[in-house]
Q: What sequence folds into this?
């Protein structure tokens, strides 16, 4: 059940039509129209845009880290792969950079349906690989690189961590926020329990998958699309997994965290009660979003401190 605070926030927002009921451009404009609700912090940051491995990125760096080799989070934004962009997740990336005292590199990956699977994954992987292998050009410590993302971006982060398992230097952490991890909705009770949830419905997820992987998306057994389909999760970087109680994706996120633990991967998992998908973007308007940000910041700081 949604918290009173979450209900009030959603009740104050104009209703959103089902994704499949309007065209792609309308859906993209609709998400961008919410940007004012994702209030940016006031603290100054060094922000720049450029290309890494040919992929557009936006980087965030606290002023105290100017010219300093710093730890880094490579971030993949959410939005069902087809929606969202650097601007929709700008405030979150700013807050993560400031709170964790690190560089955040936000990836402007190619989007479907213009660029179907695996284009987005290829872009995120290419950026992470370049940061690990060419750190000097980005003033980044190659031994302190984390991959992160929310929703579809959490999917890309988890799949990238799998692709780069065993790399040298290795990723030190994966931060998975309300992630999409499987393409078999029938396996997860939360898909039925919250099929008509505010924020994200089961039908919305079907539309997202159709944009990304085509009409036969549920038949694709590739763990690049559905990280849950990997035969083994052993050897992956440590993980943090956040889920929302009233989210169709809740159970697969928690199931993936359980599999990571079973595979011997140190993993922290937290379900945020009374929340919806994607509640984390609403800092500081939701207390739970502030708590989620604080948890992400604490986990990233802890990992970087441990690995120094």
A:
């Amino acid at each position: 059940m949604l918290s009173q605070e979450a209900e009030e926030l959603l009740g104050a927002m104009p209703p959103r039509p089902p994704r499949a009921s309007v065209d792609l451009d309308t859906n993209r404009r609709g998400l961008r129209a919410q940007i004012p609700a994702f209030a940016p912090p006031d603290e100054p940051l060094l922000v720049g845009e450029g290309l890494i491995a040919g992929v557009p990125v936006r980087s965030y760096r606290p002023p105290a880290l100017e010219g300093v080799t710093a730890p880094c989070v490579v971030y993949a934004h959410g939005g069902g792969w087809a929606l969202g962009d650097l601007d929709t997740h700008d405030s979150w990336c700013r807050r993560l950079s400031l709170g964790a005292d690190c560089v955040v590199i936000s990836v402007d990956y190619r989007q479907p349906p213009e660029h179907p699977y695996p284009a987005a994954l290829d872009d995120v992987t290419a950026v992470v690989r370049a940061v690990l292998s060419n750190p000097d050009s980005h003033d980044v410590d190659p031994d302190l690189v984390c991959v992160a993302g929310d929703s579809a971006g959490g999917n890309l982060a988890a799949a990238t961590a799998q692709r780069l398992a065993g790399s040298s230097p290795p990723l030190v952490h994966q931060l998975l926020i309300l992630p999409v991890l499987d393409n078999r909705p029938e396996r997860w009770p939360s898909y039925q329990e919250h099929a008509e949830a505010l924020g994200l419905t089961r039908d919305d997820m079907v539309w997202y998958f159709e944009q990304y992987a085509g009409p036969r998306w549920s038949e694709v057994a590739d763990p690049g699309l559905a990280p849950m389909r990997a035969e083994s999760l052993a050897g992956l970087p440590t993980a943090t997994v956040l889920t929302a109680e009233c989210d169709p994706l809740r159970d697969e996120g928690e199931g993936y965290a359980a599999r990571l633990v079973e595979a011997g991967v140190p993993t922290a998992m937290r379900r945020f009660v009374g929340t919806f998908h994607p509640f984390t973007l609403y800092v500081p308007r939701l207390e739970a979003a502030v708590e989620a940000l604080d948890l992400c910041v604490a986990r990233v700081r802890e990992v970087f401190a441990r690995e120094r």
In short: The longest strand covers residues 140-150.
